[in-house]
Amino acid sequence: MAVSSALNGGRRGSARVSAETRERVLAAAQRLRYRPNATARALASQRTNAIGFVANFLGEEPNLYFLEVFSGVIQGAAMAGQTAAVFTLGAWAEAAVRIPALCDGRVDGLILLGPRLPGDLAWWPQHTPLVSVHADPLVSGMVNIESDDEAAACEMVRHLIALGHRRILHVAGPAGMAGADRRVEGYLRAHAEAGLKPAAGHVVRAELSVDGGRDAMQAWLGRRRGRTLPEVVFGCNDAIAIGCVETLRSRGLRVPDDVSVVGYDHNLMARAVHLATVRQPLHEMGRLAVEMLVRRIDALRLGEPDTGPSNIVLPTELIAGATLAAPRRTRLTIA
User: Fold this and answer.
1) Do the domain assignments include residue 21?
2) For residue 99, is pLDDT > 70?
3) Are 239 and 58 in contact (CB under 8 A)?
4) Are 87 and 102 in contact (CB under 8 A)?
5) Residues whose CB falls within 8 Å of the CB of residue 324, separated by 6 or more in sequence, listed in order
6) One domain, residues 213 and 273
7) Are residues 141 and 232 in the same domain?
8) Residue 111 burial by CB count (10 A; 0-12/13-18/19+): exposed, middle or buried?
9) Is residue 12 part of a domain?
């Protein structure tokens, strides 16, 4: 008992043993190269001080959205004295099987990035708190952290209209994805507020990747030879926007002299190329997700209800960049 108290008493020691006894125990432990068993400690305390981060990855392209959020998770975990582990899913359809399997005592709670979960969560292990970032849709009983996609997209398009742009092509994300659909709604709302109607065919869908933006832009231009080039392209995310830039430049078009391009996220790639974009606080989302999760873990251990907010919406910001300018005076035709 004296050894246990000395080893587990922290920096200030334990009142159960004297300072002299504690120093003797620690000296013996160092001489014998003794290390406490983390698994045994977890069993005794019913807490591992470890959290899990769950995401799914599509394709081989680096997922900078994931990296931005995860950097916040790492910072938050370090601040809270937690270890963070990454778990991957092939698809969210696996969640009902995979997530309960992860809640076997190896972590105290899970952060889910962009989960697309069914409405019925009867499989959800109630002994393991969950927090989501950009849940699609929101799940009752789970804290979610997100930005206001519709408002942010609307603000960006208002800004484009104020600069004089009228032919605004929106390369949106996949249909049925909540965030992508809300950004389309924001695009349409900004036009409606200005008394404008988007040109026919000026909302197209793409995968949320550089390849997705490149392919969608190429296909759209190919279908509209001889028609007027849009004045600006608004990508659903930075990856799509950068793919659009690549396609436009491959056709000899200058960005932004001939056509402007803007994105959404303000990730590392966007910052590197000075892309005009919407900044959503991805790093802060990750850090805050850890804070909310640890709070829920503490409440569960104490048998207390978590009375905090169920959905936290963080503000966004328009970021000026080298890819946005006022529209050119003369229109260009798609070659």
Assistant:
1) no
2) yes
3) no
4) yes
5) 160, 163, 232, 256, 260, 261, 262, 276
6) yes
7) no
8) buried
9) no
Residue 292 structure tokens: 């909310």
Structure tokens given for 330: 């003369």
Q: How many helices (DSSP H) and strands (DSSP E) are in the chain?
A: 11, 12
pTM for this entry: 0.84
- Which residues partner with 5 through β-bridges? none
CA distance 332 to 315: 36
A 10 A CB-CB count for 201 gives 11
Kindly state whether residue 18 falls inside one of the protein's structural domains: no
Q: Say which CATH number the domain at 243 has.
A: 3.40.50.2300
Tokens (6 digits) for 76: 């938050």
pLDDT-based confidence at residue 139 (cuts at 50, 70, 90): confident
Q: What is the pLDDT of residue 35?
A: 65
In the predicted model, what is the mean pLDDT of the chain? Answer: 89
Residue tagged 């799914």 (tokens): 56
Residue, of 163 and 35, whose pLDDT is higher: 163
Q: Which helix (H) or strand (E) holds 85?
A: strand 83-89
| Alpha carbon 134 to its chain's center | 7
Could you read off the pLDDT of 205-220 as tens digits, one per residue?
Answer: 999 999 999 999 999 9
Backbone angles phi, psi at 160, to 5 degrees: -65, -40
Q: CA-CA distances (angstroms) from residue 286 to 62, 82, 139, 209, 269? A: 18, 14, 18, 21, 19
Percent residues over pLDDT 70 in the chain: 89
Give the C-alpha separation, 211 to 239, whole Å.
8
What CA–CA distance (Å, rounded) separates 149 from 264?
Answer: 9
DSSP 230-272: PSEEEESSHHHHHHHHHHHHHTT--TTTT-EEEEEE--HHHHH
Copy the structure tokens of residue 172.
Answer: 């949106």
Structural domain for 252, as ranges: 149-280
